[in-house]
Amino acid sequence: MEKPEQSKPENSTCGVGSGTLPGACAPLAFPYIPMQENNPSRYSQMEALETGTLFPGLNLPFKEAIQARTKLANTALVELMALDFAIDELGLYLTTHAQDQEALQLYWSYVQLSREGREKYQKMYGPLLQTDLTPEEGYVWLKDPWPWDFGGND
Question: How many CA atoms lie within 13 Å of 57's alpha carbon, on the beta-carbon side?
Answer without folding.
Answer: 11
